[in-house]
Amino acid sequence: MKQLKYKTVLMVLLTLCISSVVSANNLIITKSFTGGWYDPAKNGQGFLLEIIKSNNQKQALTTWFTFDNDGNQFWLIGVGEISDQSIEFQMLVPQGGRFGDLHNAANVSTQQWGKLTFTFTDCNNGTAHWQPTVSGFSSGSMPITRNTVINNLYCTGGLFDELGDSVSNDEIITALVPVGNSITAQGKAKYQQRADRIDFSVEIEHVPVGDYELFVAGEYQADIQVVTLANGFNEGEVEFRDPVEPGKLLLDFNPVGALIEIKQANQLILTSQGGGQSGTPGSSHQAPPFGNSETELYMSNTGVYPLGQTKVKLEQRTDRVDFEVEIEDVPVGFYDLNVGGETQGIIEVTQTPAGVEGEIEFRNPVEAGKELLDFNPLGELITITQGSDTLFTLDFPSEPSNVGNDGSDDDDDCNDDNPSNDCDDDSDDDNGGQGSDDECDDNSNDDDCDDNGNGGTTPPQLVDIDVDFNNTGADSDASGSVRYETRSDRRDFKVEVEDLNAGTYQLFVGGQSITSFNVSGAENELEFRDPVEPGKMPLTFDPLNKLVEIKQDSTVYLFATVQ
Description:
Layout (H helix, E strand, L loop, with lengths): L7 H10 L17 E4 L7 E9 L2 E11 L5 E11 L2 E10 L13 E14 L2 E8 L7 E7 L12 H5 L6 E9 L7 E9 L2 E9 L4 E7 L2 E10 L5 E9 L6 E2 L9 E5 L2 E5 L21 E6 L1 E2 L7 E8 L4 E8 L4 E7 L2 E11 L2 E10 L6 E2 L8 E6 L2 E7 L67 E6 L1 E2 L7 E8 L4 E8 L4 E7 L2 E8 L3 E8 L6 E2 L8 E6 L2 E7 L2
Parallel strand pairs: 14-15, 24-25, 34-35
Antiparallel strand pairs: 1-2, 1-8, 2-3, 3-4, 4-5, 5-6, 6-7, 7-8, 9-10, 9-17, 10-11, 11-14, 12-13, 12-16, 13-14, 16-17, 18-20, 19-27, 20-21, 21-24, 22-23, 22-26, 23-24, 26-27, 28-30, 29-37, 30-31, 31-34, 32-33, 32-36, 36-37
């Protein structure tokens, strides 16, 4: 299933057209339930509750501070088992102890008192039920309310709260594959962990309009309503988050590694079984293989928008494959990216501070802010279309290379098919001569390959750094990335931000204010290049090993170090 690179239209349409019916949320009792609990109508007695680990299992410990029927201070203690929203304790009465130095642990014994059960409705309210087994006490119940909390420990009752300090940045995308006669159905589940939240979403498309049920690990979690969107496709989505926010459901279950199923009237439509590449979350076996190549090409303009340019770039590395398409200098709007006759994504072209442009990025394995590369462009016809018009075309080569028709990477005057060419590059000649037949000798001080002004003794340093922004919490939804590349012929610096609140922001690099930009949609992009080219800003500073900040007045929203 293909996603829009720009989320603005998709999110608006989903907000207007797609609704989800929430299931009865199942609260998760987590460490954040630790604290004091009491009945305000019976102040002066209450419970101290702790969520603990015992025998490597999550359990609970409570102490009940109360009085006996004669008005004497009376306290009980118990360790309990947690089940769903309840904790059941077998309460004990300690006996034989003395105060201070008179205490002798050998004299202490415990007497079984009876059962105490806590049942919670949310992070701050619940009910205590008790059933004594000793004489002199009667069964009963009372409402309980939290009256103390652990400092800086915020209770959500969801998965983020449950995972606690173990939460680290992670993203897993799982393909949902059709079952039986539902051969056109498509879908995917997306799980994202961040330092401040966990998101889980399930999207389905190319199924009939109607209501569908989401099951995770065999448990019903929510309904997904599929509707027809403005683009003519039938789509539906349900979103979970912890901590929860308006428009999303509380993520009170753990979907990682669980079986995900989409059903309608008890009929299985989509399943995660067999979706994705075994052992590699968020990856696809349909992408080009890992390697060590970079192919960058400009597409041919058919003349509909004569000034328009589209660039395609495929990078194969030992740990990933990246594929991206950039469009510039065409009217603002939406454009279809087609590979091998199949639409793989939609690019939104917008007015940015750097010019009119749009971009879509794919990666295998996937990472935040990019789409899963689950197709192979090698040897395929790539087109950019808008409606019935074909705007750009490219027969992508079947074999990757390091030389593109835009002069990327090698970007020189060498043509290995023409030995008479003057080669001013710094690579060995591939024309089959003995040794190194070109005019570049990096061990010589008198060749024509001096890219650094010191006689060519040190080849230019190639840098390719891509880092994600850190969020300070000033706008918890905001995210983005920074990319810095140096090549023999140029330097590129790109800043992308997503989901910032509308307003004017400033880009700072190394404490220096670089530029201001306005945010009005879901995504913004700033591009710098040296030497400068149309549609980009001049790169007059060095971001390497510098702190990059997105600020509004004195408030820092996002930050990252380019290293």
